């Protein structure tokens, strides 16, 4: 491309982005819910929430529909750019990578989560029954099925994702091992104690009731089964704090609004919930620095011709999500948003 044409191309991308920003900023930046902490009469920490904005209901069918439609709309563009793993990559701190390197980092995130949780590769101890809660396009499901030779069931609110996940699984010749269905993570369609590994990769942030979410994962886990939750949290509150600072609340509101996060909580809240359910070997880690390089890569991909035209075709939910990416980066840099892994084990 000649220099003049390249400059015109870049100018068009810039002006298009500015136009999109001006048109949808009012939609993206309305208030959304945030998590507050208050003391109960017993002096124990309790969770409470401010009301949800109308466009992203706090609970019920409206929220489920919003989440499903968001992923129905965005999955095609994501798969086109990033493949079938709809989650971050894991990097060494302060590193960067090519597109191929980013996709390798997405697989590395899965392996790091398994390592951190102590999931065994021993043929006699490895998980043979796995549920992927919030399975996306089934990237984790297929990876775990191949790694362990396991039977994997994925659940999701998005019919589009579930159908595409099944098609990709058939193409990978794994249909005898992996299956998908549309189902609610808070009311899983499985009997008690069915799975050796209960896996949730970046779905917990969509759950309106975090305690019920963890309780349901514990219910379907077999005795001795391992639970892995990789999710976005906000920072732990200081002992002197009753809630986040006003500017932090405002920033979280904008992010939650665009991404259909009805509630966020802290890693400490997850630990408290897991402990209250008598789960064992509870461990947490903050992987924010390890996943941060993924965000600049997402922005860079969105500012390509393919990325921009795909955004314009995909719909308002996708555009709003793209416009909030810089705010996610800001929240990461401020230490407000924490990319957290929580693992635990159901008692034998």
From TrEMBL:
<dbReference type="InterPro" id="IPR013216">
    <property type="entry name" value="Methyltransf_11"/>
</dbReference>
<dbReference type="InterPro" id="IPR025774">
    <property type="entry name" value="PiNMT-like"/>
</dbReference>
<dbReference type="GO" id="GO:0008757">
    <property type="term" value="F:S-adenosylmethionine-dependent methyltransferase activity"/>
</dbReference>
<feature type="region of interest" description="SAM motif III">
    <location>
        <begin position="220"/>
        <end position="229"/>
    </location>
</feature>
<dbReference type="Pfam" id="PF08241">
    <property type="entry name" value="Methyltransf_11"/>
</dbReference>
<keyword id="KW-0489">Methyltransferase</keyword>
<feature type="region of interest" description="SAM motif II">
    <location>
        <begin position="193"/>
        <end position="201"/>
    </location>
</feature>
<feature type="region of interest" description="SAM motif I">
    <location>
        <begin position="130"/>
        <end position="139"/>
    </location>
</feature>
<keyword id="KW-0949">S-adenosyl-L-methionine</keyword>
<dbReference type="GO" id="GO:0032259">
    <property type="term" value="P:methylation"/>
</dbReference>
<dbReference type="InterPro" id="IPR029063">
    <property type="entry name" value="SAM-dependent_MTases_sf"/>
</dbReference>
<keyword id="KW-0808">Transferase</keyword>
<comment type="similarity">
    <text>Belongs to the class I-like SAM-binding methyltransferase superfamily. gTMT family.</text>
</comment>
<protein>
    <recommendedName>
        <fullName>Methyltransferase type 11 domain-containing protein</fullName>
    </recommendedName>
</protein>
<feature type="domain" description="Methyltransferase type 11">
    <location>
        <begin position="131"/>
        <end position="229"/>
    </location>
</feature>
């Amino acid at each position: 491309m000649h220099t003049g044409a390249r400059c015109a191309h870049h100018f068009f991308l810039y002006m298009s982005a500015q136009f999109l920003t001006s048109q949808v900023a009012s939609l993206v930046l309305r208030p959304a819910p945030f998590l507050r902490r208050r003391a109960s009469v017993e002096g124990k920490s309790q969770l409470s929430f401010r009301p949800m904005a109308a466009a992203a209901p706090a609970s019920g069918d409206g929220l489920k529909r919003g989440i499903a439609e968001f992923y129905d709309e965005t999955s095609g563009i994501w798969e086109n750019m990033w493949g079938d793993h709809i989650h971050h990559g894991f990097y060494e701190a302060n590193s960067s990578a090519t597109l191929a390197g980013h996709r390798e980092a997405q697989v590395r995130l899965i392996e790091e989560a398994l390592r951190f949780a102590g999931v065994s590769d021993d043929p006699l101890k490895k998980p043979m029954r796995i549920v992927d809660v919030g399975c996306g396009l089934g990237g984790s499901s297929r990876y775990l099925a191949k790694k362990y030779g396991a039977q994997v069931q994925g659940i999701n609110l998005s019919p589009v994702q579930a159908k595409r996940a099944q098609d990709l699984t058939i193409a990978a010749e794994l249909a005898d091992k992996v299956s998908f269905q549309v189902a609610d993570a808070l009311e899983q369609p499985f009997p008690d104690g069915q799975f050796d590994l209960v896996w949730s990769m970046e779905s917990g942030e969509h759950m309106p009731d975090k305690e019920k979410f963890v309780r349901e994962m514990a219910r379907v886990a077999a005795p001795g089964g391992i639970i892995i939750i990789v999710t976005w949290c906000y920072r732990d509150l200081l002992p002197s704090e009753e809630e986040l600072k006003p500017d932090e609340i405002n920033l979280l509101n904008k992010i939650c609004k665009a991404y259909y996060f009805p509630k966020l909580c802290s890693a400490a809240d997850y630990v408290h919930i897991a402990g209250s359910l008598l789960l064992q070997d509870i461990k947490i880690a903050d992987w924010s620095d390890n996943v941060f390089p993924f965000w600049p890569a997402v922005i860079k991909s969105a500012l390509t011709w393919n990325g921009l035209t795909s955004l314009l075709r995909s719909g308002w939910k996708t555009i709003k999500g793209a416009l909030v990416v810089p705010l996610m980066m800001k929240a990461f840099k401020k230490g407000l948003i924490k990319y957290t892994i929580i693992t635990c084990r159901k008692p034998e």
